[in-house]
Amino acid sequence: MKIEGEENLNLLALYLGITLIGYLVGSKLRKKEMKITWAGKIQSIAVVILVLLMGSRLGANDAVVKGLSSIGITAFVLTLFAFVGSVGAVMLARKLLGINKKGVRSND
Asked: What is the per-residue pLDDT for 3?
């Protein structure tokens, strides 16, 4: 008999275990002052694999594919508002701080 949510707890324990192992290995390597030049490459490869897996999982979901047009429009509107809001916030902050386009304060 399976308890509801048991699978999620098992996955959470797995993720936390992997995180703990990564922390322990990283702290041991850092203490030995080893240069880990390959870590950036592994991170990049892991991100690419993660994006591909997430994309394939979303592409296999019929509900997501059928609602792609409305999802795309919503994403576009949210992106547009985030962009305009960010640019507006930077312009306001520059004006309040008295910073010109070259990053120099006007009272300097």
From this structure: 61
Residue the block writes with tokens 């949210």: 78
* pLDDT top residue among 19 and 2: 19
* pLDDT score at 27: 82
Which residues, 6+ apart, have CB-to-CB distance to 36 below 8 Å? 29
What average pLDDT does this structure show over 21-40? 77
Structure tokens at 104: 């120099």
Segments in the chain forming alpha helices (H): 6-31, 39-59, 62-66, 68-97
CB 64 within 8 A of CB 58: yes
* C-alpha to C-alpha distance for 93 and 97, rounded to whole angstroms: 6
- Helix, strand, coil shares, percent, the chain, to 5: 75, 0, 20
